[in-house]
Amino acid sequence: MAGAADMTGHAPIGATAPLAYPIERVPAPDLHEIGELKRRAVERFRNWQRRTVAEAIEIGADLVRVKRALGHGNFSAWLREEFPAEIRTAQRLMQIAARFADKNDTVSHLPLTAVYMLATSSTPETITGTVIAKLENGEPVDVEMLRAEISAARREARRGRFRQKRKHSKQTEARREKQRIEFEKREQKRRAQADLVARELVAEFGVPMLRRILEATAEWSVREALCRAVLEVREATAQEAA
Predict the structure, then answer these.
(1) Number of H helices, E strands in the chain
(2) Who is most buried in 55, 59, 60, 162, counting CB within 10 A?
(3) One digit per residue, pLDDT tens: the chain, 242 residues?
(4) Structural domain boundaries of the chain?
C-alpha cells in the first residue's frame, strides 16, 4: 500500500505514514535515506513556519476588524470572555497584522517570535526596514543577531529617554532657580521703595503722629475707613479744582 511503512518500520521517502509504535522505537534510517530525511525535515519546518506566520497575520487582521465593529471597550470585554488567549497575545497579533499585512510572503520566512519583535513600536524602523530589504533580496537573516540588535536598540532608547528626562529635569530646575532669583530681586526693589517712602513720611509727619496712625489702623475696619476718607477728600479736592 502506498505510503505504508515497510517491514523495517520505514516510510517511503516523500510519504507520511503514522507510526505504529512510540517514536523512540522507530529504527534509524538507512544511510542513503539520511540526506533526504534531513531535507524533508527542513522543508516541512519552513512550510510550517510560513503557515504559522501567515495565519497569525490573518488572525490579527480579523481581530482588527472585530475591534472596529465592537469599539474599544466592548472589544476588550469580548477578548476577556471569548478569545482563547491572553489580551497581550491578541494585541501582538494585531500589531503584526497592522505592520506586515502587505508583507505576508516576505516575513513568513522568519519565526513568529522574530515577526513579533519587528512589529513592536519599540523596534526602530531602521532595523525593520533592513530586515525586510534582506528578505526581499533573498538574503538570510540571523534571528539571534536580530534579537541582540533589537535588544541593544531598545536599551539605547531607554538610556536616551533617561538622558532626556534628566535634561528636562535640569532645565526645569534651572528655570525655577531663575524665577526665584527674579522674585528676590523684585522683593528687594519693593522693600527699598517702601523704606524710602517710610523715611519720607517720618520726616514729614514725625514719629509720634505716625505711631498714632499705625496704632489706630492696626484694626482692619479703621484702615478701610481711613482709605475711604482719603478717597473722599481726593475726589472733593479734584472737583473744587475743576
Answers:
(1) 9, 0
(2) 60
(3) 444 444 334 444 444 455 454 555 656 666 667 777 777 777 776 676 678 888 899 999 999 999 999 987 899 999 999 998 889 989 999 999 998 888 888 888 888 888 988 888 888 888 888 999 998 898 888 888 888 888 888 888 888 888 888 888 888 888 888 888 898 889 888 888 888 888 888 888 888 888 888 888 888 888 888 888 888 888 888 888 77
(4) 32-123, 206-242
Residue type, 86: E
Q: How many CB atoms lie within 10 A of CB 168?
A: 10
Q: At 147, is the secondary structure helix, strand, or coil? A: helix
- Report the distance separating Cα 62 and Cα 75, nearest Å: 12
What is the C-alpha to C-alpha distance for residues 117 and 127, in angstroms, rounded to an integer?
10
Residues 166 and 154: their CA atoms lie apart, in Å, by: 18
**CB count, 10 Å around CB of 60?**
23
40 CB-contact burial (10 Å; exposed 0-12 / middle 13-18 / buried 19+): middle
Q: How far is CA 73 from the centre of its chain?
A: 20
Nearest to 95 by CA among 107, 80, 83, 78: 107
Question: Smallest Cα–Cα separation from 132: which of 113, 106, 158?
Answer: 106
161 CB burial (10 A radius; 0-12, 13-18, 19+)? exposed
Rounded-to-integer distance, Cα 131 and Cα 139, Å: 9
